[in-house]
Design brief:
alpha/beta, Rossmann fold, ten-stranded mixed sheet, binds ligand 26Q
Amino acid sequence: MKLEEQLVAKLGKPVASASDEELYHALVDTVKEQIRAREMTSGNKKLYYISAEFLTGRQLGRNLVNLRLYKEALELLKANGKDLREIEELEPEPSLGNGGLGRLAACFLDSIASLNLNGDGVGLRYHFGLFKQEFRNHCQYEVPDRWITEDGFVTKTDVSFPIRFGDRIVYSRMYDLDVIGFEKGHTKLHLFDLDTVDESIVGEGISFDKKSIDKNLTLFLYPDDSDKDGQLLRIYQQYFMVSNAAQLIIKEQKDLGHDLHRLADHIAIQINDTHPSLVIPELIRILVHEGMSFREAAGIVTGVCGYTNHTILAEALEKWPMSYLNEVVPHLMPIIGGLDFAAVCAYNDNKNLNIIDDEGKVHMARMDMHYSHSVNGVAALHTKILKHQELRPFFETYPEKFNNKTNGITFRRWIMHCNPELTDYINEMIGKDWLSNPTELERVMYFHNDENTLKNIAEIKHLKKVQAAKYLKEKEGIEVDPDSIFSVQVKRMHEYKRQQMNALYIIYEYLKIKSGIYPAAPVTVFFGGKAAPAYTMAKNIIHLILCLQELVNNDPVVSKYLRVVMLQNYNIAKAEVIIPAADISEQISLASKEASGTGNMKFMLNGAVTIGTNDGANVEIRDLVRAENIYTFGRSSDDVIHLYNTNGYHAIDYYNRDEHIRRCVDFITSPELLKIGNEEMLRSLQDNLKNKDWFMTLLDLGDYCNTKETALYDYLNRPKWTRMMLVNIARSGFFSSDRTIKEYNDEIWHL
Ligand code: 26Q
């Protein structure tokens, strides 16, 4: 049946006379029916991708794309005076993730389904996700972000498992999100929850009683862990997630009649960072309970598990005090002790390999590396740094376990859904093969000297900028000029990602304009990203950006050349608006600190040109597009690592030596900014930059400002710039998550 007939049957009236709400519900119902009609993917071996985060984004649009109904829906609604984009806005977006790692998990599920691989996701159904970001008085505030609705895409099941917390048992409930692939494939994301969770216990902001686990367990992702109760809650969450995963696995395998001694032939588990690491002792515990010896169980679990590392920052490598684990999961302690003992016996000459350290802390990543058969980084440089620096003793012990899997992104969301105009144009140029075989995108290169093509690509970019400007005006009341250059830095706020460097560039440009030196073209600098609630420096950086936004945009002269926009509550939906509209993709981490980055890939695919450090996947982008189609700057990762090892960086020297740097840093506490902002926050940020600057902003600031000026100047040479855009689009096929998932499957999972 045609989509129109299906909708009319549901609506009981013509499409043209239905409201957006009615159409939304009719579309959701139709999509759900089509999903149900699609057979589940099956196979002899199954993957369980366990992750604390799945940043899925809205589902209506993605499902329409994957069912190949999106265009039909778009045109049908348009013909009836409706706007599908507006209707999609009615779906609340779940914030079940914080950034890269969570979005990667969502892209992976899309690719697993699309490749018709037998694999499910397992995670938690947080009621309020991370938090919703609000700006007041130029500061970030956190409020609960409720996304659950009766008729959403996540459905309640009758599946429940007993979960043991110390001496009591709670009963879980499984919810499912159907994940359909592009044209074929159908798998599930299982999200576990407790029926007793009570949303009403949330008080001021995102505060709640951390002690009542029955009521608070799945309220938030990453609840504040600055005190013991917060840390215990995190352990409760993690154990709840993995015990459900392990019990689900065992149940499914038994239902299939598989022999548990041959578990490694039938399942693979991917541990997404250390948050699900307790699955290792939990699965061993269950297998031992089923009658297996400890030795055999540990061997099987090692054969089943793969561990992915996403961060080299020390603070992200989780370690839990034994006494805390003993409170929450006493029944796992003999197993963790046994695993540590076996590892120590085998490698007792090196304390860095111990799972339990001298202070009685359990190192989750170390447990993962001993008891997984695969350990991977997420970009070539990242994996190299893991092998030779961060995880060196483990690489020397288990060289065969280490491998690289450069991240990827799903083209279904990151071009087909967010940029149908460019998708159609590429189809016109090279046909549709690239949609299922992304390296075919390379064929776009045939057109790199074709004036007409370049003109069309530039026109599509302009159209996406006009659309973004309209969206920002309507949704946020922000006015931007689509004829200005859009430079975009969207990602979690963190000192190593160096949003502060971009802010200092804004000051540099502001001071230049004030002194009468005007840039060749107007620029709009966009930011978006949340700061962890307890991360003071990150919040101070947001404060500086919001103060600059006010100062710059209200200056009658400066605002003609420069505008600043900090997007509130940056999420997947906003990413889908701003990324296709970007001219310049800001990827300016401190070299060696950004494991991969995936935003960089999304921008590239949509024809933005990168300005970035030689870090993470930027290195691979540069190799693909070649140096003349990317702007790289700054010290190398080797230099940075050397500076850390030798304590060789002193920010104050850079401040004293360079007059431009000094003026920019001084301006943070200028009368102009103090009139707008909070003196304590601005001064603390300034002091940090002068005296600590742990992520070496001032080291690369000069180089950054110069490189950016070059990029902005090059932008004016339209044929040159548009050709750079084309090369970036053409060479982005490598970054399809379909390629990444094929590699995981060929080398790790063997489904
Ligand atoms: C750790 C301890 C306590 C509380 C929270 C955490 C924690 C939470 C989230 C540690 C790390 C994360 C998330 C990390 C993350 O998103 N990393 C990003 O992963 C992307 C996908 O691989 C990479 O592209 C990014 O480079 C990396 O920053």
